[in-house]
Amino acid sequence: MYRTFLDKTLFKQAVGACLQKALLTGLVLMLNGCATESFLIPPASTHNAPSFPVVNTGLQSIASFDVYLNQGVTHLLVAGTLKENPEQIRVRYLHSDDGGQHWTLPSDVTTTAPMPIASRGNDIQLAVTDQKILALWQAQGELPNMGPIVSAYSLDGGATWASGTNPAANNQGDQSHIDLAADRQGIFHAIWLEDPEENGYQSLRYAQSNQTGQHWEPSRTLDTSTCSCCWNTLLMSPRDELKVLYRDMEPRDMALIQSKDHGNAWQPASTVGAFHWTFNGCPHIGGALAQADTADASLHSLVWTGADSRQGLYYLRSTDNGTSWTAPFRLGNKAMHSDIAANADAQLIAVWDEMRPDGTGIVMAQSQNDGASWSSATPLSPINRLASHPRIINTAFGFLSLWTEKTSKNASQLALAFFK
């Protein structure tokens, strides 16, 4: 079961329509005389489950976002356009102290840094440690839809912002598909794709900063040849180990590389799903990693392949910290962009988008036994929407999933759902 939380501005509307919604969609409303701001939806009714924008961000259309959890606080960075100026991208920050049920008012990330090339799959990135917040994104360069990384940082919990520096060696070329994390020592770690040597293909790069992006240690190459257009996933494990999941060049399977010493040394760990997919192109689909803080600390992954007769999204589990993996279990043959989260009770939730007759929808499945078995897939987002690129995190209040969605006539909005 899950809960979808209403923003208070929608509260009166939801209460007034609660009986009608119950009749139309079979919702079981958890209401005190219709005086609450949440309701419970049985799994049987999830195909009609409504979704609502997160707090009003003041942005007409959401182009990109990232979510990050630190010390029980959920941090959110969004990029989008204003109604009065649809050609200009704005970046805004907000946070939640209760797992996404309520959010602060959004504030502009105001710096001298150029605004991002904002798109799903090449999203803006966020990481937090204590009151220090770091954001990275790709800015427009000399060529269309290509450019360098820029950074913005806050040392006071998002109240004020300043421009940081680029973790890459220079501001030339194409630096894209960034991911970002912070460890318990307060060091920020970044990965991205670039080709500074102009070899004609992207390489996977890494750098770290102990000054919240004001200065970076020299970057290093983790893999000299990777797929050029798939997002990368950087996981900071409960043991402060760095794990990077990325799409390799030959074959186009997902690969895992990791560091057990805070990014000083890196070791290729494994292929995650050895499908031996040969493909001369880029699918624009990365993978997902999750690892709960438990005694065995199983590592969980979602990977997508386009290999003949095996196309689809697969779940795999490793009990030896990523050296070997279980046989791939296919969650869906129409699934594409995905994410996964785990908690200490061996519960996993996987979310993804997939094509359906009415558009592109968000789907979820869950496991209650550390991935040994999975529930059937359940539609999550409303019908007649174009919904894509879901994210999910495990908070102290439950699992929080966010995604972007739109109708054919409306601008893209940020929607969320909460799972217990």
Strand content: 35-45%
Q: How many distinct beta strands? A: 30
Average pLDDT: 86
* Derived structural class: mainly beta
Count of runs of 4 or more consecutive helical residues: 2
Overall outline: globular
Straight-line N-to-C gap = 6 Å
Radius of gyration: 21 Å
Major sheet summary line:
6 strands, antiparallel
Low-confidence stretches: 1-53
Give the proportion of residues in helices. Answer: under 10%
Question: What key phrases describe this protein's structure?
Answer:
420 residues; mainly beta; 6-stranded antiparallel sheet; 4-stranded antiparallel sheet; 2 helices; 30 strands; 3% helix; 45% strand; disordered N terminus
Structure characterization notes:
This protein has 420 residues and is mainly beta. Helices cover 3% and strands 45% of the residues. It contains two helices and 30 strands. The protein has helices spanning 11-16, 18-25, and strands at residues 2-5, 38-41, 52-53, 61-70, 73-82, 85-96, 107-108, 125-129, 132-138, 149-154, 162-163, 176-182, 188-194, 203-209, 220-223, 233-236, 242-247, 254-259, 267-272, 288-291, 299-305, 312-318, 329-332, 335-342, 348-356, 359-367, 378-379, 386-395, 398-406, 413-419. The strands form seven sheets. Strands 1, 2, 3, 28, 29 and 30 form a six-stranded antiparallel β-sheet that branches. A four-stranded antiparallel β-sheet has the order 4-5-6-7, with no helix packed on it. A four-stranded antiparallel β-sheet has the order 8-9-10-11, with no helix packed on it. The chain is globular, with a radius of gyration of 21 Å. The chain starts with a strand and ends with a strand.
